[in-house]
Amino acid sequence: MTDSQSEKKPLLGAVNEGDDGEEEVLEGCGGTMACNPHRPLHRYLVLAIMCFLSFGSYFCYDNPAALQDTMIKALDISESTFMGFYSWYSWPNVILCFFGGFLIDRVFGVRMGAIIFSLFVTAGQVLFAAGALVNHVWLMNVGRFVFGIGGESLCVAQNTYAVKWFQGKELNMVFGLQLSFSRVGSTVNMNIMQPIYQWITGFGFKNDYTDLGVVLMIGAIMCVFSLFCALALSFFDKRADRILKRAAVTSDEQIRITDVKDFPLTFWLLSIICVGYYVAVFPFIGLGLVFFEMKWGFEPSLANNVNSLVYIISAVASPVFGFLIDRTGRNIFWVILGTVCTIGCHALLAFTFLNPYVGMSCMGLAYSILASALWPIASQIVRNSQLGTAYGIMQAIQNLGLAVIAIAAGAIVDSSGYLILEVFFLACLCVALIAAVMLYLVDASRGGKLNRSAKERKRLAALKEEEEEEKKLLD
Question: Where is the composition biased (Basic and acidic residues) (predicted)?
């Protein structure tokens, strides 16, 4: 049995027996609660490592935003060239996310996939920093391209790990925690990169771009840290496969590239919700600084504080709402609630002069609700062996939407102003809301699997376990 086969098996419901029918005895350190895969404490140790898996990627993704003025001055580049650092990251992922997910499912497995994509992230950031050191923008673009190959696919691997280890009542909380740590990575980057640059300039390097390259190279340390997390996860996951005797994926279960056409309607509705919602949040934050300065007359520092509220609040609220959703179930209800609340937030910002702290704070809470409830739904729609591909498709569609809408949003601001931009974002959210209601109706017509309460899911899981036990006894 290969590693890529042995890792594609559910953790829950696994037996604690060896090949000869006897339970494997764990001795020494392996028998402690923290090292025993049978114990919840061990899974939470793995969760801590899992949350840091994409920390380096999120930290370095917004390095350009944290150093925007510095980068434009040191490299003597235009705003359009600067924005190219983001486009070189986003456009490739329209395709690469899908193939990254497929490779995780069919070729590498989640363990090797996470390590490979972490290597891409690390190599990309090093190339980006090296380009700054020698003042070659083309090399920096190459670095962002390589970084993008690994960045989004690493998120797919992280989601696949989460479902593998926590499929069941804890999954929404786990996705919330992962989202929280990603936002912490972005927030830390925004707050420390400029002070680090000021500190580096005190060493008196020859050129400004050399200082910039050194700072970006320091940022690569975070990527190396995430690479070590990928290696640690691989060790723990392989060990758990052996101890818990997780069964291999059969040839009938392995996904083929043509299986995508057989994904159910509910999955594509989920993808529409994903793109319709996220394009009304991230591009808005990208353009929000000037919006708050123009409409409310804020100083740049105050406008930046308001603009960052969504990330700050979601970092705290996501695991809380994830825990709440785990206890209540009803994921589609929470998705609809998060979308409706975000529509209200954009309406407040567009049509009133109420302090924007209110609208942005509520948007942070609504974003936390939707993200914690949305992503785990995919694990209830497709088989575990297809999850990497499914999440890859969702990430690819999201990246396509973000890339296109970012361009459209900039054009709308230039031609019509921020009020029309807000109307445009409200239209995108209405599309997401319509898709969410359709998802509820389609799911209800098929038995309401996706919107069950936590209590009902627990009862059905217990019945399924009893049936499997009876089948084993009969065999």
Answer: 1-10
